[in-house]
Write a structure and sequence with these properties.
This protein has 16 helices and 12 strands. By secondary structure, it is an alpha/beta fold. A 6-stranded mixed sheet has the order 3-4-5-2-1-6, covered by helices on one side. Strands 8-9-7-10-11-12 form a 6-stranded mixed sheet, with helices on both faces. α12 links the parallel β11 and β12. α14 runs antiparallel to α15 (about 440-460). The radius of gyration is 31 Å and the shape is flat. The two termini are about 20 Å apart. About 40% of the residues are buried. Residues about 245-260 and about 325-335 have low confidence and may be disordered. Bound molecules: guanosine-5'-diphosphate. Guanosine-5'-diphosphate binds near residues 232, 234, 235, 362 and 383.
Length: about 475
């Protein structure tokens, strides 16, 4: 189908295991010369006459020199990952040996594989469609249970099947409508317009569900960005540390010491959260370095999916000052936390994605706590220092991350390329419906249907171009 790509007849080789030293390394060869190359290097027996799907232990030699004792796995065309003759060599994992074996294979006529080229060949030989091939890359990159789950569903063809069903039904209609065009003199209708209308409406619902699932798909694939903001010393770094249970952010008593932003990831119930500790939002500072940090924290807030606006009582307040400031604490939140609350209040008002976190609850009296709770019913109370309230904070974060996002039964779209095509499909489905309502002529209707089919085919790779394939597969790792 796509067998006109440059270099398609070459035999390719790559290290499939991570570079560096390991117990065992895996080198893959695929293409028409694979067996001949194996015959030359593997001196213990003739590989090309062996049955497919067999393992062979033996010696690799190049130019009379023994390189290693290896295990060779043999997969003959078409029953291999790529659909071509494929040989995998498991060798001892020193970087030196890997290099020696790769050199020997290259010297015998293979060329280095490009990123994703093995999977590209699998796609070209019809072993999988484009959406499935992309799922291979997602599977390798997946960092959480949810991302893994979505990629496996796509890899096993679930997503493609959903699209394929829509496609097949539309193809039938388009054939019937085109048949009508051949009989245009006789004013016949082979394609039942009411059935088409029902079908397109149903397809529209399915496509919309897939488009909507991208909100969750994006979260699953890329994680949720959480910015932690608040005055210096409210305990942002301490919270981050407690969440990560390791000491990476700098914790200090001196105000404004978290100069840069630090990013840490945390997996909550299968969803990845990327926490960014920022320099804080103190408005007036004379320190230039701190000012840079503050600008960064503004940017981090803009980019974040969720803002944790943090407030905390200031513990170094003298009892007199506390008494003086706390005169009307019945009506307003207590004054020793008021400053820091006031600061985050602006964020809470202006950003719907902001969540108030009150830290250092250990320094608050029960009455003070009640007052804050009354003023800010959504507030989450924690004591970052001891870890109290953190599991509730995690639950609230998780709920906020997946809230309002549908959790579909079937496919979850995690790929921006797919969602763009789905949106085009949706537009063309709407055009078909509008055409049916206005009793548009068959030839124009057929055009809309063809446009819809085109975009459906783009996702699975039935319709594609060389540039597009290059782009998609260039994001893979070498050896896959
Ligand atoms: P940041 O500037 O907002 O990052 O604040 P830090 O995390 O550096 O914390 C400032 C100070 O507050 C440190 O001395 C922490 O030990 C202290 N601190 C943090 N969380 C708590 C808490 O829950 N209770 C109390 N009493 N102190 C805390």
């Amino acid at each position: 189908m796509h067998n006109n790509l440059p270099g398609w007849e070459d035999t390719i080789v790559a290290l499939a295991s991570p570079p560096g030293t390991g117990a065992i390394a895996l080198i893959r060869i695929s293409g028409p010369q694979s067996l001949a190359i194996a015959d030359k290097l593997f001196v213990s027996k003739k590989i090309s006459v062996q049955r497919s799907h067999t393992l062979h232990v033996g010696i690799l030699q190049h130019q009379g020199e023994t390189i290693d004792e290896v295990v060779l796995s043999l997969f003959k065309s078409p029953k291999s990952y790529t659909g071509e003759d494929l040989v995998e060599i498991s060798c001892h994992g020193s970087a030196y040996l890997q290099q020696k074996i790769l050199e020997a294979i290259l010297a015998n006529g293979a060329r280095p594989a490009k990123p994703g080229e093995f999977t590209l060949r699998a796609f070209m030989h019809g072993k999988m469609d484009l959406a499935q091939a992309e799922a291979v890359a997602d599977l390798i990159a997946s960092q959480s249970g949810a991302a893994h789950h979505a990629a496996i569903y796509q890899l096993r063809g679930g997503f493609s099947r959903e699209l394929q069903n829509i496609r097949e039904e539309l193809i039938q209609f388009s054939a019937l409508i085109e048949l009508e065009l051949d009989f245009s003199q006789e004013d016949v209708e082979f394609a039942d317009r009411t059935v088409l209308q029902a079908l397109v409406t149903e397809a529209g619902k399915k496509v919309q569900r897939l488009i909507d699932s991208f909100q969750l798909g994006n979260v699953i694939k890329n994680g949720i960005k959480v910015a932690i903001v608040g005055r210096p010393n409210v305990g942002k770094s301490t919270l981050l540390n407690a969440l990560m249970q390791e000491e990476r952010a700098i914790v200090s008593e001196i105000a404004g010491t978290t100069r840069d932003t630090i990013e840490e990831t945390l997996n909550i119930k299968g969803v990845i959260f990327r926490f960014i500790d920022t320099a804080g939002i103190r408005e007036h500072t004379t320190d230039v370095i701190e000012q840079i940090g503050i600008d960064r924290s503004r940017k981090a807030m803009e980019a974040a999916d969720i803002i944790l606006a943090m407030a905390a009582p200031e513990k170094n307040m003298t009892p007199e000052k506390k008494k003086e400031q706390g005169r009307d604490k019945k009506q307003t939140p207590p004054q020793n936390i008021a400053g820091s609350l006031a600061e985050v209040a602006t964020i809470l008002q202006s950003k719907s994605k902001a969540l108030l976190v009150v830290n250092k609850t250990d320094l608050l009296s029960e009455e003070e706590r009640q007052n804050i709770q009354t003023a800010f019913p959504e507030a989450v109370f924690i004591t970052a220092k001891t870890g109290e309230g953190l599991s509730r904070l995690s639950s609230v974060l998780y709920a906020q991350a997946v809230a309002g996002k549908i959790q579909p039964e079937g496919a979850i779209v995690t790929n921006a390329r797919h969602v763009a095509a789905l949106q085009e499909i949706q537009v063309s489905l709407e055009d078909i419906l509008a055409g049916l309502e206005s009793r548009l002529s068959g030839d124009l209707l057929a055009l809309d249907i063809r446009r819809c089919l085109h975009y459906l085919g783009e996702i699975t790779g039935i319709v594609t171009t060389e540039d597009k394939l290059d782009y998609i597969f260039s994001k893979f790792c070498i050896g896959k």
